[in-house]
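If you are new to this repository, start here. Below is one unmodified record pulled from the training split, so you can see the exact layout before writing a loader.
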Amino acid sequence: MIRVERYILISAILTILCSCNNNNNSVSQKDSVANNRKLPQEPLYNRYATVDISPMDMSYFPVNYPQLKMLDSVNTPPVIRLIYSRPHLQGRILFHNLLKYGEPWRLGANEATEIQFFRDVKIQNKKIPTGRYILYCIPEEKTWTIVLNSSVDTWGLKIDSSKDIAKFIVPVTDKNIPVEYFTMVFEKTASGANLLMAWANLVAKLSINF
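And here is the target side for that same chain:
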């Protein structure tokens, strides 16, 4: 009888121990699953490429040319296409702790800003042949010097001024509605289009005739 009681007691203890181990394993598995679920939720998580905070953008003239083409509203090439990356202020003050007067600026971020003319145009009475160019700027307080350069497919501010094609001085206004992201778009005019460049409360316009 004593042996039977001992057997029952030992069986009960073993059952309790197995139950505790199973519970611990279950908790550990739950923690592991929870941790794995958190990984994709990390901000800006991308295992394939670094997420850029200055996104690339593209402007056309005619404005919204790709959409017009898909709607069969246009069957000719665009006149101009502009490709640039859009930095934003992030609490910085333009020409105080962001950019400097008198120093070349790529008119954007990352790769050099590129403009393509699909036909010959005139800018300030100077003929600009069809082709691709990089576009950069030398800003001053009241004017910006806009420069066309033939050194395409380049990065950043390493500008070869020996390849400058033309320079144009344009006025800058400073009483505009502020914009966080640097923006370049085209606006239609009677003689062609203006390339509008806006950031913070500044706006400059380059007139293009065609």
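Two things worth knowing about this chain: Residues 2-41 form one domain. The helical segments are 2-38, 65-70.
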